[in-house]
Write a structure and sequence with these properties.
This protein is α+β, with helices and mostly antiparallel strands and about 100 residues long. The chain is built from 2 helices and 9 strands. It has one domain. The strands form 3 sheets. Strands 1-6-7-8-9 form a 5-stranded antiparallel β-sheet, covered by helices on one side. A hairpin with a 2-residue loop joins strand 6 and strand 7. It is elongated. It starts with a helix and ends with a helix.
Length: about 100
């Protein structure tokens, strides 16, 4: 039962990031969806895989999901959004230099 709950949480996070990915693709921004998995291999001991949660990469900007959408830019700034559209608009504005 303990392995099922984190798996469902990760699947929900992946679905939410997929929405942001689709919105950014519609704006012409390519992204990469990354899943983190850590395996610990020690002789005569079993440690289950540990997940750090998926992230969406758009250039140097990352989008993660916890209690909303968390966006971090390469220069260290971060912002939190409750809607996928708002997160996508922010990432889009960061990806395109001001003219």
């Amino acid at each position: 039962m303990t392995a099922v709950y984190p798996q469902r949480v990760e699947e929900r996070q992946l679905q939410q990031l997929d929405v942001v990915q689709g919105l950014l693709l519609g704006r012409g921004i390519r992204t990469l969806l990354v899943r983190h998995l850590r395996l610990t291999l020690i002789q005569n001991r079993y440690d289950p895989p540990q997940c750090a949660g998926p992230v969406l990469l758009a250039g140097g900007t990352t989008v993660s999901v916890a209690n909303g959408y968390h966006v971090e830019t390469p220069d260290g700034r971060s912002a939190d959004f409750s809607e996928a559209q708002d997160a996508a608009a922010y990432v889009s504005a960061e990806a395109r230099p001001a003219s």
